[in-house]
Design brief:
A hairpin with a 2-residue loop joins β2 and β3. The N and C termini lie close together (8 Å). The longest helix has 20 residues. The chain has two domains: 239 residues, no CATH class; 112 residues, no CATH class. It is of the alpha+beta class. The chain is built from 15 helices and eleven strands.
Length: 416
C-alpha cells in the first residue's frame, strides 16, 4: 500500500558553533517547555539542502531547478538576449513588458513609479553616462521582491522576448506586442508545463502575485530544529594580530578585538514529505490521481531528502567553527495518518547529567511508546542510529544503516 506521508525525525549535535543568527548576530532562540532553546530556522535548513552540491544532492537529479532572485529578468533574460546581438533598447522594453505581465500589478506599478521619477529630469550632479553602461541599467529589471522562476519558465519567456525584440520596429511597440504574444494559449502553456517552476519550487513551494504563473504549495514541510535541552552559550572573545606591526608599537595591542556568541547543543529536527503533493508537483497530475502517476522521480527525491537531513549541516561561520556534523539518529515513518511531531518528547528539557545522548534516546523512546499505547501504531518505521538505547530500538522495531533507510523511504513513496 502506498504511503501518503513520510516523516523524518533527526537528532544532531553541534559543538562550538553559531549555526543560525538573528538580526543582532546572536543565535536564534525559542522558548519551549518553560526554558529557552537554541534553534535553527526552517529557512536556514531548506537553503542548505537546496544548494547542496555533494553526493546525493537534489542538484544531481537530471531535472530543471529554480532561480530565486530579484535579478532574474535582467541576468537570465535581458543580458543573454543583448549578448546575442539584439538591439538593447528593444530588448529592455520587451523584457520589462513581459515582467509586468508575468509578475502582476505590484511590480508593474513599481516600474511606472520608477519611470515617473526618471521623467522629472536629471539632478545637477547627474552624468551623461549612457543608460546601458550605468550601474542603474544593470539593475533595470530588478523586481521589487524575490521571484521564484523555474528554468523551463525562464527559457520560455526568453524565447518569447527574443522573438518580439526581433520583430518590433521600436521600443514603444513592446507592450502591445507582448500582450498579443502572451495570449491565453501562451499563458496556458506557461502555467501547465511539467516542472515549469523547477524542482526547488516543487519541494519548497512558491507564492505568485499574478494569474499567469502556477502557484505551488510546498510538498516538503520543515520545522525549526531546536535543542532538546536548555540553551548552552558562551561569548567568544577573539583578537586579530597585525603581522606587519612596526617595532616599538604596543606589544599588547591588537589590530582587531571583538566577540561572538558560540553555542553547543543536541538538536531535534522534523521534516514531512507530502507524497501526493510531491508527485503532483513533479508530474503535473492532479493530486487525487497521484497513485496512478509515475513516482520514480518522487522516490528519488525522497531518498535524497532522507540522506541530506542526516548529513548536510548549516554552513555559518565555516572558517572559525567548522560546523560539520552528521545525525546521531534518524527515524523515518511512512503511513497515511496525519503527521505528528515528536518534539513533545522534549517538552521537559532533557537532563545533561550523565549521558545527554542516552537521556535523549530514552525520552524519545518513552514518548513513542506512550503515543503508540494511546493512539495505536499508525506508521511503519525505520531507524538509523549510533549507540541507540534498547528502548528506542524496541519502539521503532527496525534498525538499519542510513542507506537502507533512505532506500526504504524511496520504496514507500514509489509504492514498491
Amino acid at each position: 500500500m502506498s504511503s501518503r506521508f513520510l516523516q523524518v525525525h533527526f537528532l544532531t549535535s553541534y559543538p562550538a558553533a553559531l549555526l543560525n543568527r538573528d538580526d543582532a548576530g546572536f543565535a536564534k532562540r525559542m522558548p519551549f517547555g518553560g526554558v529557552v532553546r537554541t534553534r535553527i530556522s526552517s529557512q536556514c535548513q531548506k537553503r542548505h539542502w537546496r544548494l547542496f552540491e555533494g553526493e546525493g544532492s537534489l542538484r544531481s537529479l537530471e531535472v530543471p531547478g529554480s532561480v530565486r532572485s530579484r535579478h532574474t529578468f535582467e541576468m537570465e533574460i535581458a543580458q543573454p538576449l543583448v549578448k546575442s546581438g539584439l538591439d538593447e533598447a528593444r530588448v529592455r522594453a520587451v523584457v520589462q513588458a513581459i515582467a509586468d505581465e508575468v509578475l502582476g500589478k505590484s511590480d508593474k506599478k513599481r516600474s511606472e513609479d520608477d519611470g515617473g521619477k526618471k521623467a522629472k529630469g536629471k539632478k545637477a550632479n547627474d552624468t551623461d553616462t549612457p543608460a546601458a553602461a550605468s550601474p542603474a541599467a544593470a539593475m533595470h529589471h530588478m523586481t521589487a521582491q524575490l521571484t521564484v522562476l523555474g528554468r523551463p519558465e525562464i527559457e520560455f519567456l526568453k524565447k518569447i522576448a527574443g522573438s518580439i525584440a526581433a520583430e518590433i520596429g521600436a521600443p514603444a511597440e513592446a507592450a502591445d506586442a507582448v500582450e498579443r504574444k502572451l495570449d491565453k494559449a501562451a499563458q496556458k502553456n506557461l502555467k501547465t508545463m511539467v516542472l515549469g517552476a523547477g524542482l526547488d519550487a516543487a519541494l519548497f513551494g512558491r507564492m505568485v502575485t499574478s494569474d499567469m504563473l502556477a502557484r505551488g504549495d510546498a510538498a516538503l514541510h520543515v520545522a525549526h530544529a531546536f535543542t532538546v535541552h536548555a540553551e548552552a552559550t558562551e561569548s567568544d572573545y577573539f583578537t586579530a594580530v597585525d603581522d606587519l606591526k612596526p617595532e616599538g608599537e604596543d606589544t599588547q595591542g591588537s589590530a582587531h578585538i571583538n566577540s561572538s556568541e558560540l553555542t553547543s547543543g543536541l538538536y531535534y529536527g522534523y521534516v514531512v514529505v507530502d507524497v501526493p503533493l510531491l508527485v503532483s508537483n513533479l508530474t503535473g497530475c492532479e493530486r487525487k490521481a497521484w497513485e496512478g502517476a509515475d513516482r520514480v522521480l518522487a522516490a528519488q527525491v525522497a531518498d535524497r531528502v532522507v540522506r541530506m537531513v542526516a548529513t548536510v549541516s548549516p554552513g555559518a561561520k565555516l572558517g572559525s567553527t567548522a560546523p560539520y556534523a552528521t545525525a546521531h539518529a534518524l527515524l523515518v515513518e511512512a503511513g497515511n495518518s496525519q503527521p505528528r511531531t515528536l518534539a513533545n518528547a522534549f517538552l521537559r528539557p532533557v537532563s545533561d547529567r550523565g549521558d545527554l545522548l542516552a537521556n535523549t534516546y530514552d525520552a524519545l523512546a518513552a514518548y513513542l511508546a506512550e503515543s503508540d499505547e494511546m493512539y495505536g501504531r499508525t506508521t511503519e518505521r525505520r531507524l538509523a542510529a549510533m549507540h541507540p538505547s534498547e528502548g528506542l530500538v524496541k519502539a521503532t522495531h527496525n534498525k538499519a544503516p542510513l542507506a537502507d533507510v533512505a532506500s526504504w523511504a524511496a520504496a514507500a513513496v514509489q509504492g514498491a
